Structure formats: C-alpha cells, structure tokens
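User: Hey, quick favor. My workstation is busy. Could you predict this chain's structure for me?
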Amino acid sequence: MKLNVNAFITTMLLSLVILSAPAQKIDEARMERDIKVAEGVLVTLIKQQFDRQRMFFPLDIKGSYEPGYGVVFRLPADYTFPVAMAFAGDAGDIVLLDGDFPGSFSYNFNTPPVVVKPFHEEEIRALEENARAMAEQGRAMKEQTRALQEQSRAMREEARAMEQRSRELHGRARSSSVNADSLRQVYSEKLIAAATDFLVDYGDLISQLGAQERITITNRGEQPRTWMNSRYTGAKRSYLTIEMTKTDMTAHKQGKLTREQAIKKVAIVRTESVEAVEPDLELFSSIFNRLYRPDLATTFFTSESIYYERLKDFGAVYYMRVYSSNQTRNSERYSMPTAKLEDADQATRDKKVKEMYPVFEIELKENLLEYGRTVKSLGDNESLIVNVRLTKCTGCGIPASLEASVKGSVLKEYSAGKLSKESALAKITLKKGASQ
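Assistant: No problem, here it is.
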C-alpha cells in the first residue's frame, strides 16, 4: 500500500510540474514578421491562379497568431471579387458594394464635359491643369474598367467550360446560364489550389508554430452584413476553410510524407448559408441580446442586435459587437455604465478596458456553455460559434476580435450531465484576432 501511495504522489507531482511548465515562448516580433512575409506569399500564389487575367481588386489578407491554436489567414469573402466582376457592365459603369455600409455606388465615364469660362490668366492655367489631371484620372479609370471587364469575361468563359464538362460527365445536356454561383465555384477552386500549395510548400515560413498548432486559411470574415443580398445575385454566401497542422507540415519537410500524401493531409471545409429559421437559434440570439445589454452586462456591452448565420453541415455563427463606454460627441470624456464610471478620461477608460477583458473572455465561455444547451438543432459535429468584435482600445494589447466555438456534442453531453462544467469549458476553442 505504501508503494502505491508513493507512486500516486510521484505521479501527481509530475503532473503538477507538467501543468505548471511555461508555455512555448514566442518571439512576437519574429512571429509578426513571419506572418507578414507569409501574407505576401499567399497573395502571390492566389494571383498566379489568375495568370490569364489581371487581378483588378487588391487582395487584402490578414494573418494573426493565437497561442495554442496557430495562425489564421483571413481572405476576402467570396462576394468581394467574383460578384463584383459579374456586376461590371458593358456600358462602362462599375457597381460595387460598400463594405461597412451596405449600398452601392457607380462610376460613369460617359458624363459630358463641363464648360468653364475663365477670367484671368492664372485661373486659365489652373483650370487647364485641373482638366489635364481629370482627363488622366478618367483614362486610368477607363483602363481599370476594361481590365475588370476582361477579367469578368475570362471567368465567365471558364465557368461555362466547367459547366460543359459537368454536363458531359453526367451524360446530360441541359442549358443553363452562367450566374454568380458559377463564378464563385471557379474562384473557390482557385483559392483551394493556392491555399493548398501555400500550406504544403511554404507553411514552414511560420517557424515558431508548436507541434499541435496549425495554419488555417478561411474566407469566413467577421462582417457578414457586407455581402450582397441574394435578391441581387441569386446566390448563397459560401465559405471555405483550408488548414494543415504543423506536425504534417514538418513530416513533409522531413521527407516522411510525399507531396501527394501531404496534400491529402490538408483539411478542406466547404459550406454555405442556409435561409431556414430554426426557433432554438432565434432563442439563443435573444438570450445573448439580453445578457449583454448595459443593465445586465458586467464588462463589455452591446447596443446592437446580435444576429446569426446558419451554415450547412457546419453549425451556427453569431456576430456581436461590444463596447466598453459611451463618449459624448466632441468630448474626450467617457461614461462606462457597467463599471459605474462617469466622466472618465482616456487613460482611466483604457485602464479599465484592460481590466475588463480577461473577465469578459471567461464570462463569454461560461455563457456559451450554459445557454448553448438551449440549442438542440445542431449535429454532434456542428459548432456553435460566437464571433465578437471588441471595443476599440488603441495600445491596450487586447485583441480586436474574439471567437468562441463549441461542438454540439459537448453541449449535449454537458446538458445530460456526462461532462463536468470544467471539462466542458476546456473543450471550448478560443481564437483571438490581431492585438490592438
């Protein structure tokens, strides 16, 4: 018995040593540099997939590192590139959507010139200079329009070719027009090819990843309302997630996996938005809307509706934006309702925000677990996700965004008493955005 007790004590001490061991130390400056370099490589690989066309739109890719998870690269959503091209008309006008404020604007290059009557020689020279500058700007915009139209036509042709191959493969000839879904399919395939090449051949550029960490490339952003309404395109919003673990990248670099074997290790998830309304998802939205109002919230609060998207075979994603304070217009003073502070200056407000963040993170996980039990429509492998855009606090070191995710199976097991609260909380995944 004494030997068994001693063995037990030894095991416990070893466990404590392991648990208390410091996490892998990261050189943050080097990590940031590696991510910036990798962003450039990924942009180049994607552009090379469109080598027959000139990419008109800038490709903005943002990478961020989350300890314990890895690096996430966020691509523009599927609506920002091919759909905009689909709306490039033959008449010389371009119609694009504004990101943060849904709507549209257009450029028209067929506007008749304005006749101006000058009065003095200096005014004449200034007007002539302005006219030349405007003419040059007009020529540049026309050139961009032509490039956009050319790219749109090329992708339409490729989409038609893909549809033709599909009809031949299934032995049926059916006529259908090329729409935004076809353009998205072309675009998605090119993104997958580029992302796969990046992960297999260049993933080791992120040199400090831990063995259990990964690189994820996704077009699921944090601003779902920036996408084009289906009444304009007739298409659903689609998502891609492509990822690979550091372990598999290392095995390939060490020659333990061939390139073909490594490609098979790349995990690809495709899904699309679902329009069906599910009562339990609406209920969860209502609960979170109430929990994070200023009178109930203990840290950050929301003043906007919390809305969600149901994604086929993936789960449900809730989007919320939280604040720490209210600011009077034309004033540098703040009121913080949850902290019971009035007329706080910037330094006091920022200090309080930094104190609030860790508590908000803990409470978000607890609320996701406790109230997520009300969601019954998720499959075991589907996820309940809350994506949060955090209060602005420049230089505070808190993330700009936070995403908490839990599997449907965890919620069911916790609800049934098969998992303790501590065990269930440990299964919630957190992803943090770039530091502010």
